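Preliminary data (for renewal application), 6-O-phosphono-beta-D-fructofuranose complex.
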Amino acid sequence: MPKTIKKVGVLTSGGDSPGMNAAIRSVVRTCAYHNIECIGIYRGYQGMIEGDFKEMGPRSVNNIVNKGGTILKSARSLEFKTPEGRKKAHENLVKAGIDAFVVIGGDGSFTGGLLFNSEYNFPIMGIPGTIDNDIFGTSHTLGYDTALNTVVDCIDKIRDTASSHNRLFFVEVMGRDAGHIALNAGIGAGAEEILIPEEDLGLDRLLESLQKSKASGKSSSIVVIAEGDKIGKNVFELKDYVEANLPEYDVRVSVLGHMQRGGSPSCFDRVLASRLGVRAVESLLEGKSNYMVGLQNDKVTLTPLEQAIKGKSEIDRELLRVSEIMST
Ligand code: F6P
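Predicted structure:
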């Protein structure tokens, strides 16, 4: 018989993403709805190790559905990677009477949670929160949609100055291991070329494509590059390389950086967060553990955490073709 859950902890872990607050709110209010207690765990697993907990009632999450970042703060805890760190975390959870927790984060956060569960048989649920959208078992992670809109908005602005000066812009977007942001925002913003970690375009093809676009009458161009792109050069080296080989181009670089992680979540992310939070808590109450709640074909689903961690969230290759056609 699974243990009856009377108190649920909630934490945000790893890189923050817009929609995390809406997910915290959803977890807290779903607990209140089912008359169970909810405890906020600050600074991810580090706060768990230090016992940085606070009781959260439904009114403690007023006016956060629209806020970026995470009111619980986030951290990438090295100490939680050690057995001693996890032992301390477990002692604190037991002392606070917490029976289960919901972790909102990416695959590193899920890996830590799963390891913790295997050592202490502690019920856990994961909610995918990262702008990178690189988690298997969900079509969307929290914050991805907002980040796409932020990037498109920025590139629209860059386009104004690019076309006024007949320049080529390299715009670097986030995505250490995944090209979802680059690919989708690139198409949305009308980029000439999109460089992503999953596909090595090669320097020659890039030069060729830029030459072709100049010859076809384009006076300015935008190339979107994921930070993890495997073309072998960072974005500034790429600028030098292109300028050396295609002197007709006047190149500028814009690294969008952490602005992509901030800002008010889109309506899509708020609704997603609300749906995932409800399902995460209700699944724990049903005695389930070690799952990630996600969205598949617009339905909220459960994927075993192990699969979510090991599986690869593939890019849609058709989008590469669409992008190529659009840049004709
Ligand atoms: O994992 C999300 C992400 O935004 C990546 O795209 C990026 O590489 C990384 O976080 C940056 O992490 P940090 O803020 O710790 O430097």
